[in-house]
Write a structure and sequence with these properties.
Oligomer: homohexamer
Radius of gyration of chain A: 17 Å
Helix content of chain A: 25-40%
Largest sheet of chain A: 5 strands, mixed
Number of strands of chain A: 5
Strand content of chain A: 25-35%
Strand order of the largest sheet of chain A: 3-1-2-4-5
Shape of chain A: elongated
Largest interface: A-B, 22 and 25 residues
Order of helices and strands of chain A: EHEHEHEE
Number of helices of chain A: 3
Structural class of chain A: alpha+beta
């Protein structure tokens, strides 16, 4: 008998600034590609992150994973590192433009560590909402193109 | 010629209380596992349920299924049974912890009956939002783990 | 020269259960008055509380009051006491029905203590949202009827 | 080495009116099937459209596609044609009921043209929200039934 | 001893169409004033109505007014008359442009009848949201300009 | 006969970065007062601005003021100047901390110019939401403390 599988989604928020800019390109090129997102002193967002994890319901506790464990991980690895920061100054954006596409990919690699600590769940999606009008989802490095 | 297939999502709300508790465990164990969700007199939520159904667009009516039929079913089987109730007192939680994981699974079995009454649609997802920060989705008993 | 006055609103959430019931009334009367809110085992809500405070902008800091102080107070006096509780078991509802009207009044008296600790601001409103469709506001014991 | 694939979602809003009605059916049949949505002078909605596109992150720009290009396309092909219109008067609903099922399908065919202009992305979903309580998703003409 | 006074807000939604047009003006004038809101076949919205009532908390029930009474009134006088309608065809807009300003005023006069039926509360505000980006509030015919 | 007076609210969004910092204070003082909002490279928000204007309904048009005029003003004076900017680099924050209290006051002075151009309305409130959990309202320089 297999246990039923549930997918849970957990949401956190953080506030950060960034600037879309490629050093190797000219000022004109940067403006043409990134528009107002290239303004020299940066801008910012209230980012919303949703992480989706899939796993079997534990018959004893009725839970897929303890949200307290997930929140403790997110407090340390997500909020502590990204909240009230300038994304461009973080190591992970030293060689990459701080687009939300790249941010989603970075957050996937972070939450894969939670997956390793709690192998009863499988990380299936990281979704980052930059504003109410756009969002970016990453489904893992092996997701089919 | 096959008809185009659309997936519709319909949302309802209900207010209920619950307490996460396993009788077979000690008070200390219950507190360790469930934290504040184990407080003795319970607590509650405004639950949001979204049911997703997939089916071919009827060429005559332009609809996949009549939302009036779906709402009548939900009024009787969802709202009447769960709204303004204590989940722990319901039959379906007599032997299971009233987690939202287990609630999502229970709601799947309920809406499978709608699926049987209206076989032109296929139930593909039940999503339950406990708070704005967490949600649980069930994709069926045969969904791959 | 007087400083400009700003009104700030701060929002917190808590999850609680309650039952609307008056012991002195018959079961029929309770049902007639409170309807489904009188169901014997209670139900619950995700409550949203917004507190509005008015004060002069401090010329040095640009702030009316430090939100860190306000959040610390709310963590201790609001979240700790109301979150994941059954309102009916709290002292403040021992002699009063646990309606959101009475809850708004109780929260006013709690946040008046913040007002005493930080007299540079004036408490002007407590708003409690029980569901997305109803809310209750209290403007103080001296607000004109 | 393949580039990581991200799915982006972009949201736009438009306001339109419509009436659900089939000329070939009697007034009684129309009322029975469409209920209040068949009221003779129509009604309307604030429609929300979300388009999901999937593609590899461009190593140079960090973007899957330039949102400025997507917004320019949507301004011309979505907002200009649907906003502040009566759906029933549009060519695409001359022979079809103006249900949101059929609207989702029509919007898919529109955004497939964006897909042709920018082949580095693949259109994977069009979601139309008619009210906060219902939504309709189309995944393409070849999506499995 | 006076009872504490609470202000409650109750929200309902309805879907309607309208067209902003003044018969006495030329087509050019109508277009200049109303822009896309003057498109000949109309458009529509999901309208959100919030009614605010103020009254003393009843010492026995803990309520300002029974929401069941308010909802029954709104079902009959608001939803039944406005939902899934074309505002321009209603009597109240026979001689007035169907702007949301005029709609707010009309809804005030409707809910004043509730105020007459339940004089323990005072109608203090009607708020109508046409889209997420605009709203109109009416505070009564005697509100100071 | 006086015309009925309506209060309209119009909402816009912009994305900006800022850092709370007072040059005259030590690093320790800045950290003590502003906490994480003092992080050296700044952070950012999706700011939501709502402006409330009050005026008589024009008998001919049914409008208090033409929203097209208001939007044109906001595009030029609000979005163009604040969107995708670092608040600290703007003239209005050269001598003031870029708190949302001070931002609300600055936006009041901007929209007073709209009030001068369209004297049929009176500016009564500017509300700025920094995150979903906090907001700041300014009611004018003469509002009673």
């Amino acid at each position: 008998v297999t246990s039923p599988v549930v997918q849970l989604g957990r949401v956190w928020h953080f506030c950060a600034s960034h600037r879309l800019h490629v050093d190797a390109l000219s000022a004109e090129e940067n403006t043409r590609i990134f528009g107002k997102c290239n303004h020299p002193h940066g801008h910012g967002h209230n980012y919303t992150v949703e992480v989706s994890l899939r796993g079997a319901i534990d018959a004893a506790t009725g839970m897929v994973v303890n949200l307290a464990d997930l929140d403790a991980f997110a407090a340390r690895e997500l909020i502590e590192r990204f909240d009230h920061r300038n994304l461009n100054t973080l190591d992970c954006f030293a060689d990459r433009v701080s687009t939300t596409e790249n941010l989603a990919r970075e957050l996937w690699s972070i939450f894969m560590k939670f997956n390793e600590l709690f192998p009863q769940v499988e990380l299936v999606r990281v979704r980052v909402e930059e504003t109410a009008n756009n969002s970016f989802e990453y489904f893992g490095d092996n997701a089919a193109q």
